[in-house]
Amino acid sequence: MFxxxxxxxxxxxDPIYDNFGSFIVPGSREWFTYMYQLxxxxxxxxLRKADDIKFAARIDELTASSxxxxxxxxxxxxxxxxxxxxxxxxxxxxxxxLAIYHGTSPKHVKY
Length: 111
What we know:
Elements: H1 5-8, E1 16-17, E2 23-24, H2 29-102
Antiparallel strand pairs: 1-2
């Protein structure tokens, strides 16, 4: 008896009965119809599960990317604040040196 490849992995070991309780003979037209309907039903379910898994994976990927971006932005802000603090210290030192050069205090230096 020829059984298509796509049905070989879903052949049930137990006898198959239809909704009315009648036995379905393996290899008969009713059996192929039943298996085709079973394949369609499980295919929709499998596709839905696959879509859910893809969606969850994409959400996880976006969440990880978002967390990485947040950490990068936080690191950037810390570096920027350090740079600004260093620039302010350098400016204060420059004004102090200029005041010492002119023999006055830093509050009287205009530039």
